[in-house]
Batch of 3 targets.
Target 1
Amino acid sequence: MATTHTPDPVFTSPSIPDRMPAIGARGGRPVSDADALSDITLPVPTPTGRDLLVEVQGVSVNPVDVKVRAGAPRTGTPPILGYDATGVVVAVGEESTRFAVGDRVFYAGQIDRSGTNARFHLVNENIVGHAPRSLSVAEAAALPLTVITAWESLFDRLALTGESEGVLLVIGAAGGVGSLIIQLAKALTRLEVIAVASRPETAEWVRQMGADHVVGRDFAGEVSTLAPAGVDYVFTSFTPGNVRAIADAIRPRGQVVSIDETGGSIDALKAKSVTWHWELMFTRPVTDPSDHYQHDLLESVAKLVDAGTLRTTLTTHLTPLDATTMRQAHEIVEASRTIGKVVVTDWPEARRP
């Protein structure tokens, strides 16, 4: 069911300042350390080419943020993290054609550019979509990275279509990506979905997302009862320790798509001639900046959301958007027990009316 939240009013600054608040990251220290994520001030960048300058109103925190923070330099200029964002376009590059100043947008950024944990952010318009009209800033910020990952996993890597049938096993089903995998599979294919969820609250969540069946962490036996011939497809965001169970659960010549590292060998899958796919949603923007697939994808997602076909996965909304709150958000995600998504909104000095 679509959210009924009243959309936030569009907000643009009357002028673009010379400098902006941002949150810098330093590695090699626990997230509780005040230097792990700290408030800094930077010059506001200028858009050129196909870049947009977006005034960021909300961001979400993903496992990739935690991973990149841990590996950030201990000294020197701290990098700016952040990928998911919702905001308003305040300036455009000379080659930009897709957006105008004042447009409300959402996107997932790039791994090789400065991140969205800054009040103003440069982003290639080819990976940006118009934000769903029916969602608030926080609700929209929960979606981009995870919905792009889920969409590419299902429709690029596994090449599923609206006519695809069979059984999909989702490992990590209550997380941000798993929640969208379930929704997209049920809305846009004919697949039966089995979700792995080990706690009562995660089991309830994945049922809300549309899962047909829910199984526990030791899922191989339960899956063999539900799908005696084996599942046709597996999505996994928790691969280490699960390769043997995946090999037991999948049918011969089945397909797996993974968004994390395996933690070891996948040789157990060889006997069934299983196809293994990797999915990294940053591949397209990093390797081909002219590719507008993710722009088109996010435009489609916005329409699906506004039609009530997809729902936000926001579960935790924190404010204000500063280093103290961001450390809290990282701590929640770092615990690896998150249901849905954690979002942080509202720069302290830039409150929306």
Target 2
Amino acid sequence: KGFVPYGATFLMFMEYARNGLRMSALMKQRAIQVFTHDSIGLGEDGPTHQPVEQIASLRLTPNMDTWRPCDSVESAVSWKSAIERTDGPTSLIFSRQNLKPQPRDAQQLADVAKGGYVLLDSAAPAEIILIATGSEVQLAVEAHAELTAQGKAVRVVSLPCTDVFETQSAEYKESVLPAAVTKRVAIEAGIADYWYKYVGLNGKVIGMTTFGESAPAEQLFEMFGFTVKNVVETANSL
């Protein structure tokens, strides 16, 4: 009594623990997994160490809550959620690189615990939604500034835990991702396919469709399209 079991390693190495992860979810065990080095941002170690499909795999595991926070505030909320959960395991996904803190008001801070919320909005009703997690939230924030300067009405949604978000009321989910706004771009440095459930077949996903490469993180992010310029161009293409 008094101890909550946890493990900590590179996200890529969840593959060695897959059976344990699956069984902890099946058995509804209160276990916490801390996974770091979550993307091609790992850099020179190359594709063997750069997770691509692992985040989606964890999200698709029944009864596994998977959080990918974008800054220290979302990280604290995700840890709180993991500690308070008693009916199953939680995976916390963290980047290698430093991430900028995002400003929030009291309502946004409360809504982080709902797994997804509106981080930035437009004065007029949004005509396009940028959805992002983790290190890619900053890309969405910077793209929001450029697109707003172009006269576009843009909403940025941070979706750190789709598992928790899906348990929210239909009204809340509609308030974050209104069905009427069909122009959507999802941005995550993981496998792209997972995000079509949120952007629709006519939306765009800036994600991974191949394994990574061995190069400095900055070069890889540019090579695979994780740049503000590409987010802006993709949004404008819609």
Target 3
Amino acid sequence: MYCPFCRHSDSRVVDSRVADDGTSIRRRRECPHCGKRFSTVETATLMVVKRSGVAEPFSRDKVVTGVRKACQGRPVSDDDLAKLAYRVEDTLREGGQAEVDALQVGRAILPPLRELDEIAYLRFASVYQDFNSLDDFQAAIDRLREEDAARADG
């Protein structure tokens, strides 16, 4: 890390703190050459590779926008959507990869969306999983019912 004051090629970390809900680290540094102190912020960038092959930074706002359409007319608040987006990001970051494909993002959305609202889940799944007929909807509903019954029995 170069000193912004004297451009010396080394610096010493004096203090580190987690910032921005754990998504970045703020470090206080000191230059051994000139003695001045400065701060840096380090973040790990999570990239999403789209179907076209283009990579872009992960965006919680894009998750919220995509899920909001499925939640239209449902009793889901903006706060609920923001929490869902954070859960999706946490799930993806837990995988430890710097790049994930868009398909993984969609998969990470489904479980918390189902917990939030099953109708919104079905709407999102119908687009995301490319439902083509009523049979696809019925199969998804049957799976939900089976999982609910297993959860109630277990």
